[in-house]
Design goal:
The N and C termini lie far apart (about 45 Å). Strand 9, helix 9 and strand 10 form a beta-alpha-beta unit. This protein is elongated. It is built from nine helices and ten strands. With about 280 residues, it is an alpha+beta fold. It has one domain.
C-alpha cells in the first residue's frame, strides 16, 4: 500500500472545509468528521435538480419521458444522502460569510489523496458506498446528463408511455438502465448561483424508509441525521489551516493544538481578506 507520508502535497491536493471554531475544535479533538443529511441543508433544491432538469427538457404530453419524470421525482422523494461539504478554494469571502461563523471561524485543508483513499477503504454499514465527488453547476451539463435516460424512455415506452413504471417486467426495466445511473447524481447537481463555492462532497446515500444506523444532532429548527467517520491521524489527513478574517487566535497556538491532537506539520496561515 502506498505510504501517504511520502507523497509531496501541493495546493491542488487539498479540499477545504469551512467551519466555526467550535466545529474545528471538535473535528481535531475527536479525530473525526460528520457526514450530515443533505436534504436538510440550507438549499431547498438539494437532491431535486435531476427531476427539474428532466421537466425542462421534455415537451408536455410525451408519454415515455413523462413516465421517466414521475419515476425520478419518486426516486428523489425516497432517497437522501449524508455529506461532508468541501471547497476547492482556501480563502473565499463568500465561504467565510456563509459557513465559517461570518469570518470568525477557520477552514481546514484536508488531503485529497487521503479522502480518496478513505472512500476506497471504508464501507459504511447501512449506507451506500462512500464517494468523493465534485459538484456540477452547469445547466448545459445537467441537460446532457439526463438526455440518455429521456431518449431511452421514449424508445422503450413509446409515445404513449405506461401508467406505472413499476408494472414493467424486470427485463423491460433493465432496458431503461440510464434511470438508475441518475440515482447516483441526485446530490451532485446544484444551481449555477452556487458556482463560486467550488464544492466537492464526501457523501454516502441512504433510504429514509429503511432503519437508520447513524445518529442525530440538533441544528436550529431541525434534527439532522449524520454518520461519524474516524480519521487516521498517523497519515496525512490535515495539510493546511486558514484562519478566518475575524479569527484572533495566534497561528502558533493553533499549531500547538494540532500537534498535541496528533496532527503535526500542518501549515497554518491567515486569510488575506480584510473583512471585519
Amino acid at each position: 500500500m502506498e505510504n501517504f507520508a511520502d507523497v509531496p502535497m501541493t495546493h491542488n491536493d487539498c479540499l477545504f472545509h469551512y467551519c466555526s471554531t467550535a466545529s474545528f475544535h471538535a473535528i481535531v479533538e475527536s479525530n473525526s468528521i460528520r457526514l450530515s443529511s443533505l436534504s436538510l441543508s440550507n438549499d431547498s433544491m438539494e437532491g431535486k435538480l435531476v427531476g427539474q432538469t428532466i421537466g425542462k427538457s421534455i415537451a408536455p404530453g410525451q408519454g415515455g419521458p413523462n413516465d421517466l419524470l414521475r419515476q425520478v421525482v419518486e426516486m428523489e422523494k425516497g432517497n437522501d444522502a449524508l455529506g461532508f461539504c468541501l471547497s476547492q478554494w482556501d480563502d473565499r469571502l463568500s465561504q467565510w460569510r456563509g459557513y465559517a461563523d461570518d469570518g470568525a471561524g477557520l477552514c481546514i485543508g484536508f488531503s485529497k489523496p487521503y479522502l480518496k483513499k478513505l472512500t476506497a477503504e471504508l464501507k459504511p454499514d447501512g449506507f451506500g458506498d462512500l464517494r468523493l465527488e465534485e459538484i456540477d453547476y452547469d445547466p448545459a451539463s445537467h441537460e446532457r446528463l439526463v438526455k440518455p435516460a429521456i431518449d431511452q424512455f421514449a424508445k422503450v415506452l413509446g409515445a404513449e408511455g405506461v401508467n406505472n413504471y413499476a408494472r414493467l417486467r424486470d427485463h423491460e426495466r433493465a432496458r431503461i438502465g440510464p434511470v438508475m445511473d441518475l440515482s447516483q447524481k441526485l446530490f451532485l447537481l446544484k444551481s449555477e448561483a452556487f458556482k463560486e463555492e467550488g464544492e466537492w462532497r464526501l457523501l454516502s446515500t441512504f433510504n429514509p424508509q429503511l432503519p437508520f444506523k447513524g445518529k442525530f444532532h440538533p441544528k436550529g429548527n431541525r434534527l439532522v441525521p449524520f454518520m461519524e467517520i474516524k480519521l487516521k491521524i498517523d497519515e496525512h489527513v490535515i495539510e493546511q489551516i486558514v484562519l478566518g478574517p475575524k479569527h484572533v487566535t495566534p497561528e502558533n497556538v493553533v499549531k500547538r493544538f494540532l500537534e498535541t491532537s496528533g496532527f503535526p506539520n500542518v501549515k497554518v496561515s491567515r486569510s488575506a481578506a480584510t473583512y471585519r
